[in-house]
Amino acid sequence: MDYNKLINKSLLDIKPSGIRRFFDIAAEMKEVISLGIGEPDFFTPWHIRDAGIRSLETGHTHYTANSGLQELREEISKYIYSRQGITYDPRSEILVTVGGSEALDLAIRSLVNCGDEVLIPEPAFVCYDPITTIAGGIPVKIETKVENNFRLTARELKEAITDKTKLLVLPYPNNPTGAVMRRRDLEEIAEVLRGTDIIVLSDEIYGELTYGDTPHVSIASIEGMQEKTIVVNGFSKAYAMTGWRLGYICAPAPLTKAMTKLHQYAIMSSPTVSQYAAVEALKNGDEDIESMRQEYDRRRRLVVDGFRSIELDCFEPEGAFYVFPCIRSTGLSSEDFCEQLLHSQHVAVIPGTAFGECGQGFVRVSYCYSAKHLLEALDRIERFLKSLRGR
Ligand code: PMP
User: Fold this and answer.
1) Quick one: which atom of ligand 1 is closest to the CA of 101?
2) Global pTM value
3) Which residues line ligand 1 (CB under 6 A)?
């Protein structure tokens, strides 16, 4: 049987994630030092795990409401208010999802009709483009530039908008570059969008992980933007809860209603045990976030300084937990750099091109690892560079 004839045509044409490809090669090798993974190396704080365990012990083993536990939605609403000063109604404007991943899928699929254009600033996380394609939409890439600190500029946005534009993905703090948008940048973006029907899909999953002077600003907090923004967030990164698979959406009621419909048929309700744990995370998790953030910040300094000392240009990341050094000085493509580094020094990093063609000349390095692990990897990368440079 030719299964390829049976599989949905748009899915068949989509390439698997470029992140996974390098993991698969690395998994076959011995003593590989990986800087590839994009998830916290910390365990979920104990009191949060305990809340999950207690929910099981007390028999919370059933479905919740489709949109999630009322108590959790209330806590999410309070949390957003405390961070961004904006109010979402827990009854109609918040939906609890299976990770930020499901939230992104719901947002794109519930808005995009065939032929609609979705603007995607790149380099960016890998899922926006394939989900848009599967929904019949057209991904339109906007190349962000290192000289603009990998921020989306109002001018780039203006040039990309057509009468088919439905959605703008705003992926900040950014995976893979670590770029962060400042309030002023967001105000300029909002100015371009004023008077249009373009919806912003703001992926704020790294919103707690910023290292500059100012905390993360949500575009929904800019005047006039809440009514045209879908905010996606979750528990994976801030609370080290990747395996619990829990995220959420905050959006205007009619959009939340549409996304809840899709969620109801595809998922029913998010994992109950995870929802109880998330209530505890929101109520009592601020100190955990802060201590993990400080540790990431120390590692960020170590890695950025490390790359600069071995003469690789390294953009100063202000958010998430990645650095995105430029490897053009080696004369290698991103893929060749990663492949040769893996084979000669057994260090795995991800080619920038996994995050869009404009990632050519860069690699993504995660610092979700201990300082010891990071220092060993930096040593090996230095050896690799010396061998390339013939020193
Ligand atoms: N958005 C971005 C930018 C990410 O990097 C990730 C995970 N790497 C996600 C969303 C999805 O995270 P999760 O589904 O675990 O919440």
Assistant:
1) 14
2) 0.96
3) 38, 99-101, 125, 171, 175, 203, 205, 234, 236, 242, 247
